[in-house]
Amino acid sequence: MIKDKASFLIGEAFDSNLKAYLRHIADDFIEKEGYFRAYSGIKHPNHNIFYQDVIKQDNLEKILDETIEYFSEKGVPFTWWVSDETINENIKKTLTKKLRPYGEMLGLAINLEDLKKGFDKPNALYVDFLKNNANIKEWTRIVAQYFGLRNNDTRLIDDKLEKYDLSDKNLGFKKFMAYLSGEAVAACTMMTGDKVAAIFDDEVIPYYSKYNPFILSIIYYPLKKAIEMGYHVGLGIVDTKRINYYKILGFEERYKYHKFVFVPRRK
Fold first, then answer.
1. Could you tell me the residue range of the domain that residue 97 belongs to?
2. What are the Cα distances from residue 58, in Å, to 55, 61, 63, 90, 91?
């Protein structure tokens, strides 16, 4: 169990790793007092995000209008995130005038010494991180299938990742792949900021998505690698459909984000 004396650090770690994740795919990232905004160019709302921390109520509507105008000019949908600690009825009322509720993301945490396997991995399944840029397109293909991205967006992710040297041990993230008898079937990103290992993009290709061991493996084995690297705390920021997989591995729910979405009209 995550010790109570460390609880105040957990919220900061979630926010910090979320920012780091968004920065690594963003074309434009700004951070100001009370919020940050990330634009990736990818035409999916989960890849263009406005995160509200503390914004005075009398400024909220103005910032909301500016944000809608910004993403509308870019021609991409976006999601507005608010933590459970921040949201209240006034904020909900203001946001839902122009945005649509879009579900929740849960922040889960674990002391990695308590990580449980709790599943049987198929013998032919192998999980490892990308040690160079050779297999970036395979990794992107899995993520693109999960989100239903078009070819242009898939190539855009390829281009973003190609600018990094994945052999750099100080990069701040690792891209993991799972292979079944040589076929790439699952992928994830592990961010390594604030002395914690945070899992994002835990995706399995549609054909295998109903098989629990594939989903559990692409979470469990990267975290085993994190233990080897000296990390003691693991985080996951996941939608409600994923929570049970993390709980099987020993994660606890520690944080919650509320999401609202805006989709601009086609020009």
1. 4-105+257-262
2. 8, 7, 10, 11, 10
Instruction: Specify the pairing of strand 78-83 against strand 49-52.
Output: parallel
Q: What is the pLDDT of residues 183-222, one digit of tens each?
A: 999 999 999 877 899 999 999 998 888 878 999 999 999 9
pTM across the whole model:
0.91
Residue pair 111/223 in contact (Cβ under 8 Å)? The answer is: no
HSE value, Cβ hemisphere, 13 Å, CA-based, for 267: 6
| Integer CA distances (angstroms), 109 to 68, 132, 172, 196, 212, in order | 32, 29, 19, 10, 20
Q: Among 3, 63, 40, 78, which residue's Cα sits nearest to residue 262? A: 78
What residues form DSSP beta bridges with 50? 37, 80
Residue 267 within any structural domain of the chain: no
The percentage of residues in the chain with a pLDDT greater than 70, rounded to a whole number, is 96
How many domains does the chain divide into?
Answer: 2
